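The following block was generated as part of the benchmark described in Methods. Ligand: iron/sulfur cluster.
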Amino acid sequence: MKLFPIPGGIHPEYRKTLASEVAISTLPLPERLHVPLQQHIGAAADPLVGVGERVRKGQLIARGRGVVSASQHAPTSGIVVEIGELTAPHPSGLAQPTIVIEADGQDEWAELPPPIEDPFAASPRAIQERVDASGIVGMGGAAFPSAVKLELGNRHALDILLINGAECEPYLTCDDRVMREHATEVIDGARIMAHALRAERVIVAIEDNKPQALAAMQAVAAKVVGDGPSVEVIGVPVQYPMGSERHLVLAVTGRETPAKKLTADVGVVVHNVGTARAVHHAVRFGRPLIARVVTVSGAAIRQPKNVEVPIGTPVSALLDFCSGFASEPASLVLGGPMMGQPLLSLDVPLVKGSSGVLALTREEVNEQPASTCIRCGSCVEVCPCGLVPLEMAAYIRKDKLKEVAALGVTDCMSCGSCSWVCPSHIPLVHYFNYAKGALAAEAREQRKSELVRVRSEAHQARLEKIAAERAAKRGGAGGNAA
Amino acid sequence: MMMDVGSLTAMGVVLGGVLGAAAHFLKVEENPIEAEIKEMLPGSQCGQCGFVGCAQAAAALAKGEAPVTLCPPGGRAVAEALAKKLGVTADLSAVEDPRDEYAEIAESACIGCTKCLQACSVDAIVGAAKQMHGVIPELCHGCRKCIETCPTNAIHMVEVEPTIATWHWPKPDGEAGAADSTHTHH
Ligand code: SF4
Ligand code: SF4
């Protein structure tokens, strides 16, 4: 298959072999699970259970609210012991509403919805509804509700479902292991999703540094027979950030997704391999998304592993399972080292979008003091989004947010390539994360002032009307003019 | 004598009419700079500047009778814009950006008098006579008008706390500061 070049990008040291040859193991059931009501982009789910209530594994415990949301299910059987504000796995360290379940150790299943017998004969609607009811979100990290993405076929003419097996972040190997060990499930889930999207082709793209995953997936794809979408499995060059949706679409199809548009506008929808596997479980067995594979790695981890964990597992329980720290970590990260977030507490739960827990040593982090920009242009060269990082950072330093918006900072995908390459160690991506947040806050304020203005005018008009009516009444009743 | 008084009264009425008409006329023919200034003000009629509303504040500004730093909710941005528009230099060092606050009514102290409800320029307060009143935080713009009207001091301001949805990364310290710690290098 002919591939197309993508702009920019870097070749970091991958360090995937720390965990890549360790088969997926299953975490022993933790004592307590913390299930946040919001683990996804969109609205938080509404809790359906009360404190003291017994729940069974797979039971719906919080229902997605509104169009973009996702439901939450009990990861095991046990008692709801608390519904309250608990620290979220989020760089702010703020709390969020969370359901705490004390496991009873029986791991007893709730009654599940029946399997969809022949998914390829079922309506796309039926598949979308099942995915929605199963609380599935994008498992590559962004955690966008998958059912919403599966409905894109209702409004867009799609020809390709692209399964993202690039796993371009250093250290992470969970997708690699899932493809090696569960290729049949991934490909079945992918074909079911393509059917829901009304796309005829499934293309699975895997970076060339995962030859075993490529071989395993190709072997399964070759055996696909019967009705439903076709499957091709292809290798793509090792180039960070190949796993970015729009870049992967460009590399595989040559189609460029315009800024502010979706890949669906060029006929392609992208889903992660873990998501495809979750769809397989939901459709074939009625099982909701209550567990995921997480990579635990970094030189400060005693035994790097890929572990299937129940959603809501505290990070500390997972680290214990990996025999803890070999040395004091210099940095703890949730996700990959490039786009992951700092992990502020080991008490926070692993959620649907958690792909990795990294404990990095000082040598791995290689933190260096920042110095002034030497205008070498390296950041411009590597930016996969065609931005000019040095210029954007200069404006942000001077608080010129309007100018930096005009330079396209909101198109920055926060891949971190510019920070990585900068010889002056300028925290470029931090500037852009700040600017994007500040611009969003400004837009929120703008909307609020607009609302205040409109409502004040309405209030004023009403007062004037009342005053005029009063005056008219008085005038009509007595005539006090002279 | 009676006659004179009568004619004076009549004159007053006539003059009043003329002045009223003039005011009306002037309002339509509003000084263009005044209209522009009005657009720059928040338009929330909060009265924190001491004028009845934003239009009156704009008129005073246009005549140079009010300082460009008069608008508390506008903060530094509005003061700066006003100074630029009016071509004046002003000391903005004391101008603070408004704190993000909303009013809250203490249930136990509210007697349901409806005074605050009438004072709120954005109708952010709900309630009926003799019933406990409440503020809709999303609509409240923190002008504090209601606080002054409450006979039982039942209203206080609450700072808007960041949530996971509104939190964002702070601005990095200058280049002498720390490098990006979540990124690995060679
Ligand atoms: S890579 Fe760093 S030093 Fe080079 S131009 Fe960009 S910001 Fe400046
Ligand atoms: S972080 Fe943003 S600006 Fe930097 S290289 Fe990536 S997309 Fe470009």
